[in-house]
Design goal:
Number of strands: 4
Distance between the termini: 33 Å
Order of helices and strands: EHEHEHEH
Radius of gyration: 16 Å
Shape: elongated
Number of domains: 1
CATH superfamily: Divalent-metal-dependent TIM barrel enzymes
CATH class: Alpha Beta
Length: 139
């Protein structure tokens, strides 16, 4: 049975502490939550220096990042259902950087949720927007 560790449960510890703990527990598969205090990604990208530091830690502790888990849902930037054009464009850019990070780390997955819509608006329009956004990312 494969078990994966996820750093969101270690949000009050350093990323290196989390990696060391996973290594000590012989949990080699990691789902990396890209929270600002562990590995910062936004709609403008991420730092190459941070990426190099992350890769060093991964190698040091002999870990496999198999999934990237972006910060998302309310009120985070990663809301596939967002309909306002500028916010939508930032969200698409954000997820494209997350997908690129997965490629850089040889992670086979990026966890993406459907997003959310305003409660005073038609829920189907937000569902359709989520589908359209996912199609855009898949291209």
């Amino acid at each position: 049975m494969k078990i994966s560790g996820m750093n969101s449960t270690y949000r009050f510890f350093t990323l290196e502490y989390f990696f060391k703990t996973m290594n000590d527990l012989e949990i080699n598969n990691i789902e990396l939550w890209t929270a600002p205090h562990h590995f910062f990604v936004d709609y403008q990208g991420y730092s190459n220096k941070d990426l190099m530091n992350l890769k060093e830690l991964i190698n040091k502790y002999k870990l496999n990042i198999h999934c990237i888990c972006p910060e998302q849902t309310n009120p985070k930037i990663g809301n596939l259902a967002i309909q306002e054009l500028e916010a939508h464009n930032r969200m698409i850019s954000y997820f494209k950087y997350q997908i690129n990070l997965a490629k850089e780390l040889e992670a086979s997955k990026v966890l993406i949720t459907a997003g959310w819509g305003y409660l005073d608006k038609n829920k189907f329009s937000f569902w359709n927007q989520s589908i359209q956004s996912m199609k855009e990312l898949c291209e």
